[in-house]
């Protein structure tokens, strides 16, 4: 009995991928030669016999080397079982087909033909399972059209789709998972688990591998996955192994960023936080601008009806788009126009599209402000130089996206704070020349820490 130590067995087993293609070629070619011989009436018996014998010998050799390779471990047991015994089946059937061809096995021609057909089937199935062991169960269908993939049972593709809004981009789903899929999953999947580690999904990643956990939330340097990808390439524990291209500097930094941020599987890019280095990496790898986007840059609305814009123009307003790439509009009272109070109703007809509204100096009273109700897309509102009070501002309470409110020269008091507190997006409010005193303005600032309260410049005399 010949004893092979583990190292020699592992060395010989690595020749399995090389040898395994020989029986495929010989045996399939013998089937093709048999068809040609019968259809054209030529005698290719000797050639076919040699092909079958060569295929049988190569199949036996491939089975033996495959058995040694499997000793490395890290393969899905079910897939390995079927690949192994289907391979044995190829070797056995090819021997029987050769014996039948040379007349050593007495059988009918139909049985011989059936053996050749069975060989084709066995080779196909064995090859499929072998591909799954090497590349993962979704390798064949990874780039298949979605309908084909679904029909044949492929898993849903993880495609990097980065939206313009970084708050819509999930760090794990859109960045880390595709990176792992691209660089690591070939050897760490449900079918082929090197080190008993599967990196295909959240549950498997958290389960770890032979050495326990591979990620340590908040500590990249102590996370096994980070240690492995930052070793010297000549270290036997370096990943990716087998001479594969190491992760790029930016790819390593992405994984480090995710690990140090707490390895959250749900957070968006903005929720995770982006430092200047990561800002550059995300821009380089994904073209992602991580500067926070304003509401009007993120949202979209249908276009305003041209006839409504024309009516606003006739009534003394400018009505125009704020940008070429969206349908939000600015409505602004013309400086020299005296508008009729009834024309304010025209603004209600385009309230979905109006995001900047200027009606300063229009002699509006509290009662006139009712047209503002429900203008949820307002981000800038100019009400300066109108005789309005705190009571009139109740109509704008709760507007979700109002960022800037100009109340210069109005009759509001510090009591307007209750209305301002209901504006979650408020960033700036102008209270110059109102009934709000500097002391009261300080109280408002304290109550609204995220908003700038502008009361103008006080000159001490």
Question: In brief, what are we looking at here?
Answer:
The chain has 461 residues and is mainly alpha-helical. It has 18 helices and 7 strands.
Q: Which homologous superfamily in CATH is the superfamily of the largest domain?
A: Ribonuclease Inhibitor
Count of domains: 3
Count of strand segments:
7
CATH level 3 topology of the largest domain? Leucine-rich repeat, LRR (right-handed beta-alpha superhelix)
Q: Calculate Rg over CA atoms.
A: 36 Å
Shape: elongated
Briefly note the structural class of the backbone: mainly alpha
**What's the mean pLDDT score?**
86
Just name the CATH architecture of the largest domain: Alpha-Beta Horseshoe
Strand order, sheet with most strands = 1-2-3-4-5-6-7
SSE pattern, N- to C-terminal: HHHHHHHHHHHHHHHEEHEEEHEHE
CATH top level of the largest domain is Alpha Beta
Instruction: State the end-to-end distance.
Output: 109 Å
Helix count from the secondary structure assignment: 18
**Which strand-content bin applies to the residues?**
5-15%
């Amino acid at each position: 009995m010949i004893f092979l130590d583990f190292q020699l067995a592992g060395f010989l087993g690595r020749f399995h991928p090389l040898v395994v293609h020989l029986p495929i070629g010989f045996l399939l070619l013998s089937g093709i030669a048999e068809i040609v011989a019968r259809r054209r009436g030529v005698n290719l018996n000797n050639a076919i016999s040699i092909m079958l014998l060569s295929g049988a010998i190569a199949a036996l050799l491939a089975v033996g080397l495959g058995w040694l390779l499997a000793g490395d471990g890290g393969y899905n047991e079910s897939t390995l079982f079927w690949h192994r015994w289907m391979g044995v089946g190829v070797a056995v059937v090819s021997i029987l087909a050769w014996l039948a061809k040379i007349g050593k096995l007495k059988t009918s021609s139909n049985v011989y033909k059936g053996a050749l057909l069975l060989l084709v089937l066995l080779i196909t199935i064995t090859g499929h399972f072998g591909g799954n062991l090497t590349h993962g169960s979704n390798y064949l269908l990874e780039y298949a059209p979605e309908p084909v993939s679904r029909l044949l049972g492929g898993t849903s593709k993880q495609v990097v789709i980065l939206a313009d809004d970084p708050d819509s981009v999930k760090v794990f789903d859109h960045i880390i998972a595709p990176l792992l899929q691209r660089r690591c999953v070939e050897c760490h999947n449900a079918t082929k688990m090197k080190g008993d580690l599967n990196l295909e999904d959240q549950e498997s990643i958290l389960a770890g591998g032979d050495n326990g956990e591979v990620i340590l939330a908040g500590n990249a340097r102590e996370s096994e996955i980070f240690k492995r990808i930052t070793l010297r390439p000549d270290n036997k524990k370096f990943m990716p192994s087998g001479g594969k291209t190491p992760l790029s500097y930016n790819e390593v930094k992405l994984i480090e960023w995710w690990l140090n941020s707490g390895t959250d599987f749900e957070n968006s890019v903005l929720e995770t936080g982006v430092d200047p280095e990561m800002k550059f990496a995300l821009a380089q790898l994904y073209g992602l601008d991580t500067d926070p986007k304003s509401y009007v840059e993120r949202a979209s609305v249908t276009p305003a009806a041209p006839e409504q814009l024309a009516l606003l123009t006739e009534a003394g307003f400018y009505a125009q788009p704020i940008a070429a790439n969206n349908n939000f509009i600015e409505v602004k009272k013309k400086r020299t126009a005296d508008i009729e109070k009834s024309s304010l109703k025209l603004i209600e007809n385009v309230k979905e599209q109006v995001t900047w509204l200027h009606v300063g100096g229009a002699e509006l009273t509290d009662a006139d402000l009712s047209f503002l109700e429900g203008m949820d897309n307002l981000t800038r509102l100019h009400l300066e130089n109108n005789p309005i009070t705190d009571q009139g501002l109740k109509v704008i309470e709760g507007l979700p996206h109002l960022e800037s409110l100009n109340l210069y020269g109005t009759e509001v008091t510090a009591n307007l704070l209750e209305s301002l507190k209901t504006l979650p997006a408020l960033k700036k409010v102008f209270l110059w020349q109102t009934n709000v005193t500097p002391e009261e303005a300080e109280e408002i600032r304290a109550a609204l820490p995220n908003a700038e309260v502008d009361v103008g410049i006080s000159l001490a005399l």
